[in-house]
Design goal:
The complex is a heterodimer of chains A (423) and B (83). Chain A is an alpha/beta fold and 423 residues long. Chain A has 15 helices and 13 strands. Chain B has helices spanning 2-14, 43-54, 60-64, 69-82. The two termini of chain B are 16 Å apart. The chains are: A alpha/beta (423), B mainly alpha (83).
């Protein structure tokens, strides 16, 4: 019998809410997590706003030992461990203290890890003072640091790894974990992704001049997915985590179930036919969505909600057009569409996982979450989708099937299909 | 003077041409993205090279209006005069 994969736990460390309750409330009520960042102003950034989780209010001793906290200067590790451990606990699982759990693994992605720690190290090395780096320079800056930290904390004995595919990373991690369970190589996979905060991560995007620069005194209005006045993405950071599990294992331990991951697809446009290092090949995007639908054993007409990649750049209308072609649906027949990036910006490698957590909370709360800052819908989008399908406020409509896509630099795509769980 | 700027600018821009576009194609009215087929991401690098070569600084707004060689030349001229 084919293995079914369900979501039994979630955790999130997002700019507009840490933990499922705060994050769910923020998405329901349209609370922004984008703020002015004085340090970016000091450093002469054009875009001086960003989405950054407010971890200061939390006691990190709840997540790390004192020794682990000593010299910890990797924001992505902090966000990822908070989200990952919360998800594990939310699933009703505990850390394996004696022997590792051979059936539990981790795929936790990132784009770059511990940049602040790396900066410390570079200064010391350049000063000829390498002996002063300390013992944690490597583990805080290796890409797989995040899965390594979590793997040790939880005692996972199956595959423990980190994936990296730019802004597709989070959704890709989820699908990699899904495949591992589906192929019966693991029973449970903690999947997700994290992204560091700060000027060294965001600077490169500012230099590319693809961030908004006229909203430094009105940060909550800056991120405008699907809007006619969209002018670039607001950089973000954070982490999202899901516990994926075979339905057999979930049922056996009486776990609560947020939804089922029906299937998905990962591909690349090969940087051909309109695709470049930084722009998508539309044919590949359409194929990715169609393949995900086919793998999931549903028809396009069954999709109630799309949670888009929709970053608030000039590419948003093209993405909507690609969804319309892939689903063969338009106008009033189009699914509801939302982009959470209006609320917390583009969390880069963490975007896919944070947004999947948000998408699944729509099942739990029986709502389709509203969009922020697209009251002035882009005219090219209005040509494809009826405005009523792009809610400005959350709707009390319980979705059954949600499609989530993420796209990234390198012309890479991922699409996952979630279904509300019916026993 | 203007001719000199054009030659210098042409030299910079030619470094970012795709392999199948020859530097002969660079004319005063050439559009960077549509005619010369330059990757939009490289416009940022062209601006940086221009800043170094002419010892000027271009603002974000200057870059927004820079679609053709003529636009770029005009902006450079204005910046040099304002120095």
């Amino acid at each position: 019998m084919a293995v079914r994969v369900v979501v039994t736990g979630m955790g999130v460390c997002a700019p507009n809410g840490i933990g499922l309750v705060a994050f769910g409330h923020a998405l329901q009520s349209g609370m922004s997590g984008i703020n002015f960042q004085p340090e970016l102003k000091e450093l002469n950034f054009s875009c001086q706003i960003a989405g950054k989780p407010n971890v200061d209010a939390y006691n990190l001793n709840d997540y790390f030992t004192n020794v682990q906290l000593k010299g910890l200067n990797a924001s992505g590790v902090v966000y990822g461990v908070m989200a990952g451990k919360d998800a594990w606990q939310d699933a009703g699982l505990s850390a394996n203290t004696e022997t590792p759990d051979w059936d539990s693994g981790i795929v936790f992605g990132t784009g770059i890890l511990g940049v602040d720690k790396f900066r410390e190290a570079i200064y010391k090395v350049d000063q000829g003072n390498v002996r002063r780096l300390g013992s944690t320079s490597v583990i805080q800056t290796m890409a797989s640091g995040i899965s390594a930290y979590l793997g040790g904390m939880l005692g996972c004995g199956n595959q423990v790894t980190t994936n990296s595919s730019a802004c597709t990373t989070g959704t890709e991690a989820i699908l990699m974990g899904y495949e591992r369970i589906k192929s019966k190589k693991a029973k449970r996979m903690l999947v997700g992704s994290c992204s560091d905060s700060g000027p060294y991560v965001w600077g490169g995007f500012d230099a590319m001049r693809i961030l908004p620069r006229n909203y430094n005194d009105s940060p909550a209005k800056a991120s405008r997915p699907m809007s006619a006045t969209a002018c670039g993405f607001v950089p973000g950071s954070g982490a999202g985590a899901l516990v994926l599990e075979s339905s057999e294992s979930a049922r056996a331990r009486g776990a609560k179930i947020y939804g089922e991951l029906l299937g998905g697809s990962i591909n690349s446009g090969g940087q051909r036919n309109g695709g470049t290092m930084i722009a998508p090949n539309s044919e590949a995007v359409v194929r990715c969505i169609r393949t995900a639908i086919k793998e999931s054993g549903i028809t396009p007409s069954q999709i109630d909600v799309i949670n888009g990649h929709l970053t608030a750049t000039t590419k948003d209308p093209l993405e909507i057009k690609n969804w319309s072609i892939a689903l063969g649906r338009s106008g009033k027949d189009f699914p509801y569409v939302n982009s959470f990036k209006g609320l917390f910006g583009h969390c880069l490698a963490a975007a896919g996982s944070i947004e999947c957590v948000g998408s699944l909370l729509q099942f739990k709360l029986g709502q389709v979450f509203g969009n922020l800052n697209c009251e002035d819908l882009h005219p090219e989008i209005k040509k494809v989708v009826d405005a009523s399908r792009i809610p400005q406020k959350s709707l009390d409509i319980a979705p059954q099937i949600i499609a989530k896509a993420s796209f990234g630099f390198g012309d890479v795509n991922a699409c996952a299909i979630f279904k509300s769980y019916n026993k | 003077m203007k001719e000199e700027h054009f030659v210098k600018l042409k030299e910079i821009v030619s470094n970012y041409l795709p392999d199948d576009v020859s530097s002969e194609a660079i004319q005063l009215e050439s559009n960077f993205l549509e005619e010369l087929n330059i990757n939009s991401a490289n416009l940022v690098d062209i601006v940086l090279d221009v800043e170094d070569a002419f010892d000027i600084m271009l603002e974000n707004e200057d870059m927004d209006g820079m679609q053709t060689m003529a636009d770029a030349q005009q902006i450079i001229q204005a910046k040099l005069e304002a120095k």
